[in-house]
Amino acid sequence: MEHASLASHRAWLESVSALPAGFRVGAARFSFVPIEVDKPGTMTLTLIALDEPTDAFGAMFTNNAFPGAPVIVGRARLDEPLLSAIVVNNKISNVCAPGGVEASNAVCRAVAKELGVAETAVLPSSTGVIGWRLPVEAMVSAVPEAVRALQSTSVMPAAEGIVTTDLYPKVRRASVGAGSIVGIAKGAGMIEPNLATMLVYLLTDCDVPREALREALRDAVTPTFNAMSIDTDTSTSDTVAIVSSRRVPCDLQAFREALVRVCAELTADVVRNGEGVHHVIRVAVSGAPTRALALGVGKAIVGSPLFQCAICGNDPNVGRLVMAIGKHVGTFAPGLDLSRATIAMAGHTIFEGGAFRLSHETEGALVAHMREAELYASVAPADGLTFVPPVRFPSHERAVEIAVDLGAGSERATVLGSDRSHEYISENADYRS
Amino acid sequence: MEHASLASHRAWLESVSALPAGFRVGAARFSFVPIEVDKPGTMTLTLIALDEPTDAFGAMFTNNAFPGAPVIVGRARLDEPLLSAIVVNNKISNVCAPGGVEASNAVCRAVAKELGVAETAVLPSSTGVIGWRLPVEAMVSAVPEAVRALQSTSVMPAAEGIVTTDLYPKVRRASVGAGSIVGIAKGAGMIEPNLATMLVYLLTDCDVPREALREALRDAVTPTFNAMSIDTDTSTSDTVAIVSSRRVPCDLQAFREALVRVCAELTADVVRNGEGVHHVIRVAVSGAPTRALALGVGKAIVGSPLFQCAICGNDPNVGRLVMAIGKHVGTFAPGLDLSRATIAMAGHTIFEGGAFRLSHETEGALVAHMREAELYASVAPADGLTFVPPVRFPSHERAVEIAVDLGAGSERATVLGSDRSHEYISENADYRS
Hints:
By secondary structure, chain A is an alpha+beta fold. Chain A is built from 12 helices and 15 strands. Chain A is globular and about 70 Å long. The interface between A and B is large, with 83 and 86 residues.
């Protein structure tokens, strides 16, 4: 898909944003001052509410060993019989902050009271600075306004409410019979980066019961959200939640396939709008003895700072590609026979039989491929130091295509990643204070 | 140590560059055109020659699964009875290039012939672009000039000859009784030695026999070169070689201690002169159940792009520090109890009992500490896009000091790493072509 302008991207987003039956969303913006620094900010409190409580919901969370308080609370919510609402705030992630769990509960309690539902039927999410305390009072005061804003037409207020640092909101949908799945995501942002938390909410009216819904989520997350990396840093807050209002009968298999499609598209959206991303990189690894090794090799390639920089420069430095593969295999599968490994980029075989097959022609083709996949090029900064992306919408959905066959098995994985640019450094070297 | 200028750094280098007895070094520079791209370059061929062949030599190499041809040849050399010389070229690393091993052997053969020694007594090393073929003819033609340049006074021609993107040569020495150890290193990028392209040559006249020398090398590499990371990328060419001319009797324990000291200082030099490095980061991890976890946590912290960017910006974003620890532990030791973990930065305890202890005062102290450890600040580039480090010498040897006690055991490790800057991106987004 290509978007020629911010207006055309916006029109497209609105065309996919109709809410499934049984949901309402609303948001409230308000000013606050963090306890830790004397610098006022603006926070958005986003509500996703169900018309009726549902037993069909699930969520997957970060495996970071220092999970945020909303993750701790969210894990416990999975054992509750019913879910009535999701409340999300940006700016502060409520991770390792003194009294964090109680703060999350206090926000849930305020939402529950205003909606007339059980406190334990409210799932909290937070994203933002790690270590700071939530401005609970200000958040509680904003709840009534968010409730008044609830409407059943469009998911856009939520897609925009959770987006603090992203360049644009991310919405994807799929139809399943008479029902639909609508997903929204918040990825690595741009203006106040380090909100590298991914939050994803998948709303559906398809009638899939709890266990089948959770199994479908697990199966959809593995090849999508769990097979991407922007900067190798696993957030303390990552959350993917799914909720069904169970309004529309559906075929489970069709639902499962549609869910994978929505998750895959949101995954690509998150990477494409990752901090400073000029190129999305898609690495298909095959011929591995295990899926874990296939995934690991793919992540090692997209996680290599040197390879990321080369792609950013449209430089076909494929030596770094081989380095990254060898780094991972040398550490995690030492002794594995790689003599039958082959590597292709943009459909050109560039490595086989233990050696490169490079030529002026191949180099030219690779450079052309990378230029075609570039989302934008850096623009010299106004202050000489601070790079700002010159676009606020995705101009296309192409990627740099890499295929690695390890020649040592039949397992495979496809990983999405990104290049590394001046915009990433500018965004992350001084965003917080 | 502080260096006020390039001249004072240079004078200091010369003061430590006297060669141990029994060694000569020389180098030759020449123009060449890579077979793969139509762009001429200048290569340096560096020779380190022994006055007499020695049986006391050893080397450790990368564990990357795609090792360079010189690494393949070098591993075989370890079984040879004698070593007479080391030949090193920069610009092309001879990794996965068609006919790579034969090319390395051809260069060794030319050196052997000119020196009148056995081909198998010459150890080859190469560093530079991966995948390209060595310009064997041009290299062979340069050998006589390199041999004519051999001299027994100073290691500097070798320290200067092996560099690629390094800003300055790296030399360290230690005395052991009447003898000495002199080490040189080439670093700068693709550095996470596991046994990184880091090339290190340690020359000594101390009489330590082969097996004791190799054991001393292994023991010295573990806490030094193998405990650092500039960009998490393990080179296909990393080599640390040690050679003794066995001229001076010595105490083995004193030698071993001196060797660790030289390796530790060279490790710090390599990190300090890593591509785009503004700050060296030293992470001391203790209280781990295993040394592997302590090392892993340390590497996860210095390898986190977000934490690296924060340090670059002198931004005390300690949330990213906790994120990095949790990322590693969550993946490699899930379930480990971190409730007793404490974190200190610049001597201030900033995290304990599962929560941060942050205040305006602490923030100020951390910022001051980072500014004090900064080697240089970015200067707005002349062309608006290409950042170039404004200094070509290390102004001091301070580091950002972090101490993590996991509170879950008694094992420990100290890791050296660096921040991530615009200079790294500029260096690597278009270095090769």
